[in-house]
Amino acid sequence: MTGILKIAYKLLVNDKAKFTALLVGITFAVFLIVQMDAMFAGSMKRASATVINLGASMWIMDPAVQTVANTIGIPDYVLDAARSMQGVSYAVPVYTGGALVKLADGTYQSVTIVGLDDTSLFGRPELIQGRIEDIYAENAFIVVKDPEFPKLGNPRVGTEFQVNDHRGVIVGIARVASSGLFGVPTLYTTYERALQYLPNPRFTISYVLVQPKSPADVNRIKEQTRALGYLAVTNTEFINRITDFYIYQTGFGTNMLIMTVMSFIVGLSISGQTFYTFVLENLEKFGALKAIGAKSHELVFMILFQTSFTALLGYGLGIGLCAFLITLAKRRLPDYAALITYGNLGLAFVMVVLIAAISSYFGVRKVLRIEPFDIFRG
Amino acid sequence: MPNPAIKATGVVKWFGEGEARTQALRDVSLDAYFGEILYVVGPSGSGKTTLLSVLSGILKPDSGGVSVEGTDIWNLGSDKLADFRLNKIGFVFQDYHLFPRLTTAENVAIPLILRRTPWAAAVREAAKYLEIVGLKGRADLPPVKLSGGEQQRVAIARAMVGQPDILIMDEPTASLDGDTGVAIVGFVKKNILNEKRCILIVTHDDRISEFATRILKMQDGRITGTAKGGST
């Protein structure tokens, strides 16, 4: 079989114009599909940044919460109840909220403030400058060095600012796994200081972060929380909840779907049509092969090999191009939210396989119908 | 008389349906023998190409039988019939049907490649046949760089490379000028024909009749006469 596949390969590759058109079609389609999905995945990762960075196993929240940024305060008794639940190793409060800080030059900048449990500092970031215990010092804040960091004037340890007319001092510079979606810098402080410095509603706890004693306790904790009228979810479930919100309750998911389908149609149109023309132009040659003694299944293998080869090559080129451009964009724009995930690659692969399968189908049909007698008849 | 290479009995073939239905072959019977060049001549639409297609296992007759070397070819399954064509028949098509994206040697090697001969060995063997047909040094050229006569020789080399028992040539001189056409068929007779091989040629060209052993005349789907050729 390898010999006949080599014939198929040479017929395909030596027809440079058509081969190029086929490759461009598939590469472009893969590029568009992966790029769209990468932007979506990157944005979703950033939308879940607080969940990822705090790293809690379980989160207790108001059932109406849909994204980590839109918190609904929960009363203190929920924290107490969580601590006394069966299967809970420990539970701590966390505060997350937005604020405006006044910088030394008099300008204002929006920030996200995360107030960590004073006792445990659970969810604290990794410091690259300063010491974590300095967070207990007067007016202390730790700033995250991420793409938004320059918006605070590239602060150093000791830099001062104001939050709601309170003095704030940077005591440490930290790094986190993911920066936020909304392009604002992040400051960490203690839970109590966050409550003192920021205006608060009646209930002040944004979330209760829970560590179950074992994975088997997760469901038990969920049930006990539900009995309180609140919702407990795992880290992954919270990220999925946020993603679902953006997919189904904003236009984000629909737009992504439309773009993915359009990319698929563009790829299919260019590749399908070019491949069909390629088969039509070679139809007499396939007929001649049939007359000489090639079996129908061998001709089908030739077509499938040609489409698969082109599809896989275009898939690789499309992903390579996308990765290259994303890397380039991230160098120029550190804020650029795009992330190629295995899911993206899998989706693009399925799309490419579909394009190859549909293109092959029409080619195979045509080749199977050609009669060697037509070659004799001329 | 020796056993025939090809024996056709009562072959009937219809084309089309309804009012457009026409009979292309009407109860055609013939024998073709090893060691002879058998011409099938006749006007356009007389059924020559249809007959050749039926004899070579390409077009199934509506009735009648064809046996090649004693095997009833129309009782073979489709894969076995393909194998029969690959191993027993060499085709030279009127328009050659060479692959422009393959080299000349690769074109010639196709029957061997279909027989699972390794690529390099097949191309090496093909180069030998190109030498036989006088195209030494052209193995790596694409067919489009060759003249019509040279392409015809490539097609002959492709038909011969698998050493088939039966060579079928459809209008071998139709695309060639007179001298080249005569030279090509002369070449076939001199170098390809032997006592273990039967050559069937469909032609309109009277200039090459000197090379025929026998000539079958066809009209309206019937064999209307047999004549001895110039090389009898």
Question: What structural category do the secondary elements of chain B indicate?
Answer: alpha/beta
Please tell me the total number of domains of chain B: 1
Q: End-to-end distance of chain B, in Å?
A: 15 Å
In DSSP terms, counting alpha (H) and pi (I) runs of 4 or more, how many helices of chain B?
6
CATH architecture of chain B: 3-Layer(aba) Sandwich
| SSE order of chain A | HHHEHEEEEEEEHEHEHHHHHH
Report on this structure.
The complex is a heterodimer of chains A (378) and B (232). Chain A is built from twelve helices and ten strands. By secondary structure, chain A is an alpha+beta fold. Chain A folds into two domains: 172 residues, no CATH class; 155 residues, no CATH class. In chain A, strands 2-3-8-5-7-6 form a six-stranded mixed barrel. In chain A, a hairpin with a 2-residue loop joins strand 6 and strand 7. The longest helix of chain A has 37 residues. The model of chain A has no long low-confidence stretch (mean pLDDT 90). By secondary structure, chain B is α/β, with parallel strands linked by helices. Chain B has a single domain, classed as P-loop containing nucleotide triphosphate hydrolases (Rossmann fold, 3-Layer(aba) Sandwich). In chain B, 31% of the residues lie in helices and 27% in strands. Chain B has six helices and ten strands, in the order E-E-E-H-E-E-H-E-H-H-H-E-H-E-E-E. In chain B, strands 6-7-8-3-9-10 form a six-stranded mixed β-sheet. In chain B, helix 3 crosses helix 4, helix 3 runs parallel beside helix 5 and helix 5 packs parallel to helix 6. The longest helix of chain B is centred in the middle third of the chain and has 14 residues. The chains are: A alpha+beta (378), B alpha/beta (232). At the A-B interface, helix 1, helix 9 and helix 12 of A face helix 1, helix 2 and helix 3 of B.
